[in-house]
Amino acid sequence: MYRVAVDVGGTFTDVVLQNESTGNIIGTKTPSTPSDQSIGLMKGIQKICEENDIQLSQIQSIMHGTTVATNAVLEGKGAKVGLITTEGFEQILHVARSWTPAPISAWMGFIKPDPLADLIYTRGAKERIDAKGEVLTELDEEQVRSEIKALYEEGIESLTVSLLNSYANPTHEQRIREIAEEIDPNILVSISYDILPEFREYERTLTTVMNSYVRPPMQRYLTNIQNKLEDLNLNSRLSIVRSDGGLMSIPAAASLPVHTMLSGPSGGVTAAAMIGSQTGNRNVISFDMGGTSTDVSLTYDGTPRVSRETKVGVFPVKSPSLEVESIGAGGGSIAHVPPTGALRVGPQSAGSEPGPASYGSGGEDPTVTDANVVLGYLPPSLVGGEMKLDVEAAEKAVQRVAEKLDTDIYHAAQGIYDIVNENMYGATRVVSVERGYDPREFSLLALGGAGPLHANALGKLTGSFPVILPPTPGVLSALGFLQSDIRNEYSRTYIHKLSQLDRESLIAALNDLYLDCHSWLEQEKVEEDQRLIRFEVDVRYFRQGHEIPIKVTKEELDNIGVSILAERFSSIHEQIYGFKMDVEVELVNIRAIAIGKVVSPSIPMVEEGEVDASGAIIDHEHKAFFNGEFKSTPIYERNLLKPNNKIIGPAIISQKDTTTLVLPGFTAAIDKNLNILIEEGASL
């Protein structure tokens, strides 16, 4: 039997097939279909089965990373959302946090986006619960019923209920949902206690509204996929990838789509952590460079960083996600020269339609891919010869940049290549230097279709070595999905000063969350021996505006006490911000994370070869442009490389899903798992 993972990107849909008996992995790509992602998904699954003479009925499970929820927000194509909040707080989404994005003067040109739930579709419920969960004013059910009927008559497609202090007592929210479902059971209702039962009413309301906003399009998409699977008589178990790298069932994804906002990038982070540990490099900075954007993340000691708040467009969303920094830098990023005369690359992208000029699909704008073609870094064909590149069209596109810069075509292309590398270097500093980590103490792992072309150059900028190129970097995000576990989490606000915190009460509160996790794992049919439940607490200095999540176990609290929380908080605070303070510390949230371990077959090792890799050369005559001149740059076929092989740069390593560039002065070695490790120095 086989397992399939599918990652839908802006340009290509990546598909990975794994044999459950042998662990062998095969990858392929197919153009994405932005109008309906499920078309590209099904074409990809059919393609990889046909290429490997496998029957669709042999596929046991499918793991899918989707951008449907993200695109709905970014493109403004979500549902018409109604909002019920506590009377007097109807403008909560407008008041927000009085925040504007950087730089400091952004307020001068920042256009505040319209809330996802319009004020005309917002109603106040007559009720009030205090921060301790005590009912001050009973819910006026007739008034709420009347308001909901009015919203439904105005054509809202999804309803959000987010009441003040409902994190402490959800009874009013739950009753409003019952009333709404009595009125019209076909309109989806999301309540904030189910989505984010924590304090801070703006973040809780915004996150719940976003869940309502993307829920109808996500349900339509999932139904569409299931119908296509049924049409093909494909009875595979379909799982959707969460933003934090875990897996969720179709019913869970349909009801909680806000947890899929960074579904796609999470696969690459998971795979990078696994491969980094596999090569003995547990500290890894990974960058996933596709056709439209680059996602950069950091893994420390084998564990990816998880953020409790992410951004979708300009909206801050409180949903667990692997910490990823995204920038508009990809193979399709367009180079242009503004009136200032300084060359710029991105964030605009040629996408998959029409794509770079070299794709021959009608694109005319000069892109990063076109620059790589002109420099000789990209061979004249991609995807194993299926996709021929138009070198003449690439040269014509880059020539327009060269004329504006008053230079030749090759130096213009080199400028495009260097600038996009500098853009990505800035993103690596955000996830490393700005969080207290030295990038020179990390290796650099490249993934995505365009990543290996720029990996060596980016490693040179960051000082992060070795540069790791896994066997299937072009489809590594999809490979990461195969390593993902079933995952969910439960949290609650629990505000106490540590000096006044009773250890037994804290452990009892964690036990309540433990039972929620245990019940959910049973619903997901996870075997007892595959269950794992972890605990975190959010800690801050007393009345500070932000908190830091701290991992802890019940055994540590039993044996050491709550003082361990203050010690860990001070250490992490000093690492991130460079200082710590001798002031009161308080706990604000507690959390239990439910994990259902998924057993993935191990990737088989390959028989070792000799140091000499010349047998893998498929083009001895190729030349590429480096430091102002063309140099002999042989092209190697990656499928012919074996462990122990070494390649001295400059060299190009070609494979079906990507192309790797080894710069002059660097050496690439093949390890036992067929990873390419690039180090400084040119010696065998």
TrEMBL record:
Domain Hydantoinase/oxoprolinase N-terminal residue range list: 3-183
GO terms, biological process: glutathione metabolic process
Organism expressing this protein natively: Halobacillus trueperi
Domain Acetophenone carboxylase-like C-terminal positions: 504-673
Lineage, highest ranks first: Bacteria, Bacillati, Bacillota, Bacilli, Bacillales
GO cellular component terms, semicolon-separated: cytosol
A GO MF term: 5-oxoprolinase (ATP-hydrolyzing) activity
Pfam families: Hydant_A_C (PF19278), Hydant_A_N (PF05378), Hydantoinase_A (PF01968)
InterPro entries found in the cross-reference section: ACX-like_C (IPR049517), ATPase_NBD (IPR043129), Hydant_A_N (IPR008040), Hydantoinase_A (IPR002821), Oxoprolinase-like (IPR045079)
Name of the protein this chain belongs to: Hydantoinase/oxoprolinase family protein
